[in-house]
Amino acid sequence: IPKSLPRWRNPMTIDPEKRKKMLSYRWAIFGIMAVAYFFVYFHRTSTAVLAPDIQSAFGVGAAGVALLGSMYFYAYTVMQLPSGILTDKWGPRRTVTIFVILAAIGSLIMGMAPSFEIALVGRVLIGIGVAVIYIPIMKVLAIWFRKYEFASLSGTLLLVGNVGALAATTPLVLMTEALGMKGVFTALGVITLIIAAMCWIIVRDHPKDMGLPAIEEIISEETGEPIKESTSAKMPMTEALKITFGSGRKFWPLAIWFFFMYGSIMVYQGLQAGPFYGAVYGWGKTDYSILLMAVAIGMIFGCPLAGIISDKILKSRKKVLIVGTLAYTLIWAVIWLTAGSLGNYAGQFAINFAFGFFGGFFVVSYAQIKELFPIYIAGTSTAALNLFPFAGGAILQLLSGYMVVDKTLAQFQNLWLLMFVLMVIASIAALMSLEARDIERREAKKG
Predict the structure, then answer these.
(1) Vertex 157, ends 219 and 190: CA angle to 5°?
(2) Cα–Cα distance between 268 and 403 in angstroms, integer?
């Protein structure tokens, strides 16, 4: 070939500099969105520690605190499908920025609320705002990262979230003592506005928006395999919803499992554990906030470990899900059977750590659901699943408020027994769930 003529080039060859930039810039996107997610968990679990302050500030009882706590979950639940639809339609950047701003407004309202009714409005806005953070992040992971990185990064994200839950224990007690409850929420509102601005500046919906290669192109170049699925493809909303909700065992066992699994976590960590330790053992807010911190610490270890085991060791979502669910169910049996009789603080710390550690294994369910549906409806399918844990949180938290009105040992024992029974049902649902390789095996047998 004459040197004056251009040489033939493999169409899958990618500019090394663009490849390098794509693989590095995605961490900036993940980083700022993870910071936003920190406050999702902070708000979610804060009522367990702030319950006495809420009662004092607004003159409400236990049922009022339960109502305020559950309003977050009602708002969060209602917004899950819109979250997925908007993420698939608008893209993660615009979606997350708008709703982080709403969360900031809700925090400012909570900080200035003159009455319980206004505080409820602020709590609802916080719930709506933070509800539309996780799904855009899942979409970013699906578009910017490799398949075998998804569960590990989901675990890392939940680690960050649980650092937020950790901050909503003893650190929140100290912040409240320094600034007052309303001062804390006002400061959170200002910080959240700054995060929203950073999301708009840094986040991009797709590498193509920056003239960079898509992840499927990079994978194709690395493996030599043809591109099977495009991350930039689109699907009409109604068709995406029909595929998701009409998929039978692909979707519904996981949905039922998640309703009870996460609902029970929020009953304990998000609302009733603090009042239980205060009423039954007579421990103060600082003491039981450390026990709630143990739950968050457990999840900080459990979430990323579950993702790593799923991605790197067992290479299975369902196996990790089942192991975590069975162990977590056993922890509920221990909580129920030892209620009122195990006053050893170290023993309670160990129980709470194990509760958070195995509870954190739920993270692999997002990788499981993502792989069962086309990547271009990752927002819709993940949001559809995410309806159920937060519906569980809202309904079971509200129910728990009515079950422990007088905060007696017998009432808490009944509540813990109910959570154990619900987790037995959740374990059966987990066993019935499917993962992508189950379907691949079936198709291979048919073939």
Answers:
(1) 125
(2) 13
**Phi, psi angles (nearest 5°) of residue 359:** -60, -30
> In the structure encoding, which two tokens stand for residue 439, read together?
């379907």
The model's pLDDT over 399-417, given as tens digits with 9 standing for 90+, comes to 998 999 999 999 999 999 9
Q: What is the pLDDT of residues 346-403, one digit of tens each?
A: 999 999 999 999 999 998 998 899 889 887 777 788 888 988 988 898 889 889 989 9
What pLDDT does 232 receive?
64
